[in-house]
Amino acid sequence: MESTPKSMRVQIGLFGRTNVGKSSFLNYIAGQDVAITSALPGTTTDVVEKTMELSPVGPVVFLDSAGVDDASELAPARLKKTMRAFDRADVFVLVAEPGVWTGYEDMICGEAAKRGAGCLIVVTKIDAAPPSEAFLSDCRKKAQRVLACSSMDAAGRLACRDQFAVMVAELAAKSSVDVPLVGDLVPAGGLAILVVPIDLGAPKGRLILPQVQAIRDALDNDAAVAVVKEREYAALLSRLREKPDIVVCDSQVVQKTVADTPAGVKCTTFSILFSRKKGDLQAQAAGLGAIDGLANGDRVLIAEACSHHDLADDIGRVKIPRWLRQYTGADLAVDVSAGRDYPPNLKDYKLVVHCGSCMLTRRETLARLRAAQEAGVAVTNYGLCISFVQGVIERVLEPFPAALDALKRARERQGRNI
After folding, report:
1. What is the pTM of this model?
2. Angstrom distance (rounded) from CA 350 to CA 291
C-alpha cells in the first residue's frame, strides 16, 4: 500500500474555516501527529498531504488545507493552494463547529457540488459544545453524510475512524469514474504487445509507471502481455501464430511501431491510453486541430504536471517543440510549465500540449483541461501531438472512433482533411 502512487489513491480533502479542527481531525483519524495543531489561527499554511490505508477505502491521500477564511497577509497564496486542492479531492470533508454555519461552509459545499465530488460534514469539538439536533438536521440537508465527533475522545477513536471510512468509501464510489487503461481493448485470453524502448529516459532496472500500469490492467482483465523493445518487435510478430489483439507503444517509437504493425491490428500509444483514462480523449484529439492554424510568433505551452530530470533530448522540452516547428514551418514561441500550476498568462497561448498525467488523478486532469478550455486555449497531450505531427494519428486513433471523429471535425473547421 505504501508504494501505491498518489495518482491512484482516493484523494480526501479536509476543508473549513480557520481553527475549526481540520488538522486535529486528521491526526485523530491517522492515530499520529501528521499535522501541526495549535489554538492559534492559521497554523496550517500549505496543503499537508498524508498517505495511508483507510479500510474499506484502500490507499488514500488526505489533503489538509488552510482555512478558507484566512485573513493574514499570506491569505491569497494559501487560498490559491486550497482552491487547487478542491480540484484534486474525490471526497470533500467539511470540518465545522457545532452551531456555527457561515457563507464559507456554503461555499465549500458548493465547490463539491460543482465538481461532482462527494461531501461529508464532520462536526468536531462536540466535547466542548454538543451540536443540537436542529443543527445536525440542517447539515444533513447540505451534504450526503454527517459525522459528529471529538478529536479529544481517545477511547472512541477507532469507532469514529471506522465510521468515517465507511462514509468516505460510499462517497468515493459514487463520485469516481474508473476508466480502463487497456483491459477493455483486449479480450480475456487475448494478447497485448507493449513496445517499450530502453533509452536514456528509461529508469535503470525497472519500467516507468504507465508501462507497469498497462501490464497490470491487462492482467487484471485476464489478458496476456508481451513486452518487447522496438528493434525486436517485428521479429516477435513473426513468431506468433496469431495476431495480437492490440499493440501499445511509447510515443517516441510510434512511427516504427505503426510501420511494423499489420493492418487490422489495433495500435495506439501509452500516452493516448492515459488521455482516455485520466482526461478527455475526444477533447484532446479535437485540440490537435489547432496545430494546423499555428503561425509565426504563436505561443505553445508544454505542460508537465510533475517534476522530472530533463534530459539532453527531452521529449517535452526538446523533441515536441522541434517536431511542431518542423510540421508547421512556423517560428513558434514554446514555453514549458512544470508542476500543478499553469502560468498566469494562459490566455496568451494558442495550444497547450499536456503530458500524459500519469502522476495526476482523473479529477485533477479534467480540471486542468477545463482551465485551458475556459481560457479559450486548445489542449492536447504528448502522445496525440507526436502521432499527429508524425503522420500516424489516424492509425493510433482507430481503437477510439469517437476521438477520431472529433479530430476530423476539428480539422474540417480549419479547412483541412485528415
Report:
1. 0.84
2. 9
